[in-house]
Amino acid sequence: MTSSKTENKKNPYPFLDSNYTIDSEDYPRDLMNKIQSSELMVLNVPSEFGGGFGKLEKSNYHILNILKGIGARDLSAGRIFEGHLNAMLLIERYGTQLQKEVYFSEAKSGVLFGIWNSQMPNEPLKLKKSEEKLKLEGSKVFCSGANNVLRPIVTAEHNGQQQMLVLDLKERKFEEDYTYWQPLGMKSSVSCRFNFTGLEITKSQFLGSPNAYFEQPDFSGGAVRFAAVQLGGAEAMIAITLAHLKEMNRTEDLNQISRMAKLALLKETGHLWLENAGLAFDNRYTNPIDCLHKANMFRTITREICEEVMSLCEMSVGLQGFLKPHPMERIHRDLSVYLKQPGPDSTLLNIGQAFIKN
């Protein structure tokens, strides 16, 4: 049985058909430049602001499939672009008419947005009044995309609550501090620390009301995006493994055939779950409980699929897959790190509790 939405059309984004990046751990500039020069930048922007693709602007299956394709090309690029799409969603939901017109126009012209929320307990980002001006004090960590993101959305404490702010870094660059970012994989996401102390903020940069960033179902439901990117990484690993076996003339080996069968099942399972999660996210405002439940299940099953894919591919390729310049070496490290998303245990408990209640 195959997905009812399996696409037979030629890929409109041929740059996503390339092999997984293996020769550099720098920022994925070439791929990101191609993405930023394409209509993907306004993939989930309403058509009234020049975005979307007709009916597809409301199809999260389509959006998640694109994210999967980018993840199959480069997981770091997928992580960065997923943040851009999250920013577009937040602006659509909470932005004023003027903000939407300005920010969506910038995105359409290739300006990269992002969302940076993580911070260390000893240096939280705060918005304070100084000499009748509002200024930031503190830092953010894991700022994926670093100075390549010209319009990051950050959360800052203001009057005891968390306020979203849309920063403008087109004219000002901050020092990229990689003290907290020395990972095994995903190094190309350049997820550095930024100290924003002293940056002046105006009220026009406020996005939404206090604590709006944490409103459901978008906050937790957005996990469907990173899960889609992760699935792309798993599919790339499967393709690399199959290519390796063909090159080594080992496709007749019964053990390898058995592993390929398992990988085929995992790949199809992931795609069917992606379609299911996309539909639930389409209906997130009419059925938020189902959206959250499906998002929790999708991110959990995706992690399990990816972990099993990595294990089977390791068995199929062997030691060669862990030696540079074999393409599996890079993707194995990237996917291992990217799968470490926050709250997996609490997510599993939420799935169980929701299942018991229903």
TrEMBL record:
Keywords of the record: Oxidoreductase
Q: Which molecular function terms from Gene Ontology are attached? A: oxidoreductase activity
Q: Which InterPro entries match?
A: Acyl-CoA_Oxase/DH_mid-dom_sf (IPR046373), AcylCo_DH-like_C (IPR036250), AcylCoA_DH/ox_N (IPR013786), AcylCoA_DH/ox_N_sf (IPR037069), AcylCoA_DH/oxidase_NM_dom_sf (IPR009100)
The kind of enzyme this is, by top-level EC class, is oxidoreductase
Read off the Pfam families from this record. Answer: Acyl-CoA_dh_N (PF02771)
> Where does the record place the Acyl-CoA dehydrogenase/oxidase N-terminal domain?
24-106
Entry EC no(s): 1.-.-.-
Q: Does the keyword Oxidoreductase apply?
A: yes
Query: What name does this protein carry?
Result: Acyl-CoA dehydrogenase family protein
Please report the organism this UniProt entry assigns to the protein: Mesonia ostreae
